[in-house]
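Hi there, hope your week has been kind to you so far. Do you reckon you could talk me through the fold, stretch by stretch? I've dropped the whole record in just underneath, so have a look:
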Amino acid sequence: MNLNTQKILRTLNPNKVWLPVVISLGFVAFMVLSDEEFTPQKLNLVFQARYLPILGAFGVLILKEAAYMYRIRVLTNKDLSWTGSVYVIILWEFASAVTPSVVGGTAVAVFILLKEKINLGKSLAYVTLTAILDNLFFVFLAPIVVLIIGVDIFPDSVRSVRGIFITSYSLISIYTLIMALALFWKPRLFKWVLIKITSIGFLRKWRYDAYQHGNEMVWAASLIKGKKKRYWVQIILATIAAWFCRYLILNFLIAAYNADLAILDHLFILSKHLVLWIVMLLSPTPGSSGTAEHFFIQFFTEYLNDFTLGVTLLWRTITYYPYLIIGALVLPVWIRKVFYKKKIA
């Protein structure tokens, strides 16, 4: 894995925060201009929210971040302090917000853990395990949701959504299966297969990278081998809690504008949000900007009606823009902490 410091810091460049914001707001502006029935009052409707559900949305947002911080601390066997856990999660979220969803912030996460004095092998193991746990949440839950609810979970207005969902889910499942087998079962076989594949003529230029990645997987597998049952229970429960809290934010936001939601409606909203998230994972834009707003409108108009456009902006304001702003503010502090403190000392 390429952990070139300059490259990583360019990825985390705070100046990049403007691009996803411009894409996101640009899409909203496009929707406004293309909507013949739009009036400024439609955006003003966002201020008609009921306060308690809005507070609930912020509450589960905080719980989500707390679950992630708890998980990374348990994952590292408490080698990472609570302060370090806060830095890691904030900067990891920031990296995910300024890079396309299809790219993710894996290399950045390893780099951050490394600078927080977690050695390279352990950093690789923890980040790989985190990715597998997160993906397993989708892999197990998505088919259950689709089987129970059926095709009603997909919006009728965009027929391509089902195809995008199937493609994204298939790619996640294949990737997760390969990584899980490599990490928990046969890391050396994984390394051997990578080297053999890259022995083919036109793939030879990636052979060294394949060899290095194979070594990393063997290394990572050896570090998580023999962990106690309690370790796995804690990180699995923290993963489930974090993702359910992420989805519940939207339930609270919709409830702030629709007081007639029944329990079944909330289950439908949770299920649709799961499908939306899997669709967003194929987005080529930073933090799924534009893609998220577009499909949000398609999925949730039936619950929000005239409130839809305003709630789309509110949803992103609560769940996305803060990571750009907070990350851009925290990053220089963290850089001074890990790079310049040593030099001064």
Observations:
- The chain has 15 helices and no strands.
- The chain has a mean pLDDT of 87.
- The chain has one domain: 5-29+64-344.
- Residues 5-29+64-344 form one domain.
